[in-house]
Specification:
single chain; mainly alpha; DNA polymerase, domain 1; hpI Integrase, Chain A; 2 domains; globular
Length: 304
């Protein structure tokens, strides 16, 4: 493979460094970019392509076709192509490329998958836990915060003590792209959080930089640990669906929209940069209305 400045490996490394240091993307996004670009550069290498300046649109189309033959889901192919477009956009500016070879390549069409949300009764059942142990208090506080404030998993995991503003009943949240926002915290969630902090393993020496949710040794919880503990909480309370952090966020969004109808407010609370992302919850709201109509309207009821 070429060792020139725009060689595939060098260009990929520069892009990842830029994404980390300048764009300050999350580690999760960086890992996805690295994995997707490794697949693409390996494919291009097999095609005899040594530098980004040699890549043409037909190379990217061939790569997308290979991904389809491997039975990747349309959403996965779309993510791979999105990574490629971002990479070539960066390379275009860095190496003065005349065009982006990935721009004209589209992923297979995919059905719009609506997020799953629990109803209010299921939420009430889920957000109930014995408080016999410190871990019970911690897990309940995590679940309450996810539902009360519509947090992402990464936002919950990154919370530190200095992010909590008890007097104003708000949290300072660091979301995607390292953007911060202030979100309200409900009374019940704030109480659950206070109960946990009193039993926090570092309760006697909490600092502003101390992670809110930790192991009993005071180490920050991983994403996977949070997912497993929430699933355990839901199973303990007899919830018949698999509960994960994003389901609580979806439930928050759909319940807020059902009650208020204020799409812009929900967008701000969720930290969506584009309102089109938030609009998916209007479909959930319509589903709720449609079920009510089918159950109540005399002309809608099915004959038995």
């Amino acid at each position: 493979m070429s060792k020139t400045a725009d060689s595939l490996t060098n260009a990929a490394d520069r892009f990842l460094d830029y994404s980390r240091d300048v764009r300050q993307l999350s580690q999760h996004t960086l890992s996805n970019y690295a994995r997707d670009l490794n697949l693409l550069t390996a494919f291009l290498d097999r095609q005899g392509v040594a530098a980004v300046s040699e890549v043409r649109e037909y190379h990217i189309r061939s790569w997308a076709s290979e991904l389809r033959r491997k039975s990747l889901a349309p959403s996965s192919i779309a993510r791979h192509l999105s990574a490629a477009r971002s990479w070539f956009q960066f390379c275009g500016k860095r190496f003065n490329l005349p065009h982006n070879p990935a721009n004209g390549v589209n992923a297979p069409k995919r059905g719009r998958k609506l997020p799953k949300a629990m109803d209010v009764d299921q939420i009430s059942q889920c957000l109930h836990a014995p408080t016999d142990t410190d871990l019970d208090l911690r897990d309940l506080a995590m679940a309450e915060l996810l539902y009360s404030s519509g947090l992402r998993l990464s936002e919950l995991q990154a919370l530190v003590v200095g992010d909590i503003h008890r007097d104003d009943r708000v949290l300072r949240v660091t979301g995607k792209g390292n953007k911060t926002r202030m979100v309200p915290v409900g009374r019940v969630a704030l109480g659950a959080l206070q109960n946990w902090l009193q039993r926090h393993p570092l309760a006697g020496s909490l600092e502003r930089s101390t992670p809110v949710f930790t192991t009993m040794k005071g180490l920050a919880l991983s994403h996977r640990s949070i997912q497993l503990r929430l699933d355990r909480l839901a199973k303990h309370n007899g919830i018949g669906v698999k509960v994960h952090p994003h389901m609580l966020r979806h439930s928050f969004a759909s319940h807020m929209l059902e009650s208020s109808g204020d799409l812009r407010a929900v967008q701000e609370l969720l930290g969506h940069s584009n309102i089109s992302t938030t609009q998916i919850y209007t479909h959930l709201d319509f589903q709720h209305l449609a079920k009510t109509y089918d159950a109540a309207h005399p002309r809608a009821k099915r004959k038995k």
